[in-house]
Structure formats: C-alpha cells, structure tokens
Structure to design on (313 residues):
C-alpha cells in the first residue's frame, strides 16, 4: 500500500530556501539576457559545481530562440545536439541565426558556447496558432495520483538517513539539496534497483512554487525538466545505474515536440521508455501528460551509455 503524502513540497527545517525562492531562482536561471540583436547570455546555476545540466542549456537556448520571435508564433518543436560538456561557473552565450520567417512557420538556430567553444547546437521551429485536424492516440497511463506518492527528495532522505555520515560534503549536498522542480516517482528511485527490469519509468513533476503567466517560460521549464530521468530509462533494462558509478554516459541529442500549452507549476506526468540500446548508446522516449490526461509534449533522446570498466590495479 502506498503511503499518502500531502500535496505540498517536503521541506525540512534544515533547508536554506523556501519554495518561492527556489522557483524564483529557476525563473532567473532560465531568463536569458540580450547582449546584442541576436546574441544572448545565460546565467550559471547558483552554487553549481561540475558539469552544466543539459536541460539548462536546452531551456536557455530555447528561451534565446523564443526571444527572437516577435510576431506571436510559438515554439512547437526543438532538436538539440550536445557537442561538449559545459562547465559550471562561466556564462553561456547563445548566438541566434534567423533561418526562416514565413507566414505560418519560422525557424531559428541557436549555438551555445562557453569561452568561444560551442557546447550545443539547437534548432527550434515556431508556428502561428491555427485550427486543424485533431486526434490523440496515446492513452494516459494508469498510475497513482501525485498526492499518493513521496517526493524523490523524501525518498533520498529516508533511504540514505543512516549513510549520510559516510558521504562527503559534496555528496550530501547533491543528494539532499532542495530543488526547484519536485519529482514524485511512481516506482521509487529506479536507480536504486540492481535487477534488470522492463525499461519504463513514470514520474510526476512540477515546480515547487507558482510561475509567472508566461507560456514561453512554461515551455522552457518543461524543456529543462525533460532532461531529468530520461537517459536513465535505458539503464533500467540492464540493472545498472549512473548513481552507483556503474556506467559512463552523456546525452548526445534531445528532441521535444510541444503539442499543447501546459503549466509547469501544475502536476505533469513524465512517462518514459527505452525501445533500444546498443553500440554504446541508449535510445529513450518520453511523453508528458497533464493530470487530466492531455498529451502536451513528446520527447526523444539518445545518449552514450557504456559500462564502466574497473580500473587496473
């Protein structure tokens, strides 16, 4: 029987920031600064260390592309290729190419760079609103409501409560730090399992606080969150985990199709599966639904996935 939790975010007295502040930090992170007509600058993550989160670069690149559209068209798809891992700290610049401006559609390219070196190429397509033939043939998965599930943060605290003293300060911060997007996994922390299972995963997510009424920002937050859990779905089939240091991997490309407007501060279900892995790569798909069952986005990603070899003695 699943333990029922309240619908509010689980924060303890040890957390240094409240949900509204966490959400404001995310909004600030995804708000790019225009430094020239078609050049933008993205801020670094507050207290970020190591590699830049891929979802951040995708979301900032989308925001830069969206800022170059002035006639009301909205993004309906993006395709991104990760070229190199970005480093936390230095700002990221986004150079926009206006490849096409038509009556119904427009296209933008964004090149994300750090210190003059490209780290990601992104192409986004935009469309003016119109009515058209409509169907939806993707049944909503039978899953528990988010109110019946524990957050991943609460699960981490419970599972690692007696192991915190054995972790470094950096490991504890990574494991327990408050996050602006709350995740409530349907099957618990799948990266804790070491038995091969069907490569499927379902997670509810939303920002921990309310977002402004800006559809472009909500698309950017959904793009940001779409990089969570996705690559790890392929690893489920092999009973291996990045968190246990059993795999070496990196995202190679990422695509999103936005089907319908959605609020990222209301519960969304991320339903992922992995039809294939091989040749050192894993292919993953995702579908994002509203709590009412509307399919609002589809995602696909391929990533490098190699079993880590033990170091020679």
């Amino acid at each position: 029987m699943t333990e029922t939790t309240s619908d509010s975010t689980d924060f303890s007295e040890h957390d240094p920031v409240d949900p509204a502040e966490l959400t404001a930090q995310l909004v600030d992170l995804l708000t790019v600064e225009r430094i020239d007509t078609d050049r933008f600058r993205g801020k670094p993550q507050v207290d970020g260390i190591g590699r830049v989160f891929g979802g951040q670069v995708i979301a900032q690149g989308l925001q830069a592309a969206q800022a170059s559209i002035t006639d009301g068209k909205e993004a309906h798809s993006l395709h991104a290729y990760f070229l190199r891992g970005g480093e936390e700290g230095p700002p990221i610049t986004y150079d926009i190419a206006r490849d096409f401006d038509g009556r119904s559609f427009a296209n933008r390219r964004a090149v994300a760079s750090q210190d003059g070196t490209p780290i990601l190429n992104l192409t986004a397509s935009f469309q003016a609103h119109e009515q058209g033939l409509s169907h939806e043939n993707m049944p909503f998965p039978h899953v528990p409501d988010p109110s019946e599930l524990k957050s991943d943060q609460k699960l981490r605290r419970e599972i690692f409560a007696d192991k915190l003293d054995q972790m470094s300060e950096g490991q504890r911060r990574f494991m327990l730090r408050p996050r602006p997007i709350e995740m409530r996994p349907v099957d618990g922390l799948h990266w804790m399992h070491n038995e091969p299972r069907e490569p499927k995963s379902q997670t509810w997510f939303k920002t921990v606080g309310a977002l402004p009424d800006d559809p472009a920002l909500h698309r950017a937050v959904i793009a940001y969150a779409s990089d969570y859990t996705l690559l790890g779905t392929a690893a489920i089939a092999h009973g291996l985990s990045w968190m246990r240091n059993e795999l070496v991997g990196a995202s190679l490309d990422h695509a999103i199709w936005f089907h319908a407007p959605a609020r990222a501060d209301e519960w969304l279900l991320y339903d992922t599966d992995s039809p294939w892995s091989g040749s050192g790569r894993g292919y993953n798909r995702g579908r994002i639904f509203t709590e009412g069952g509307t399919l609002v986005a589809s995602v696909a990603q391929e990533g490098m996935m190699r079993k880590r070899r033990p170091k020679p003695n």
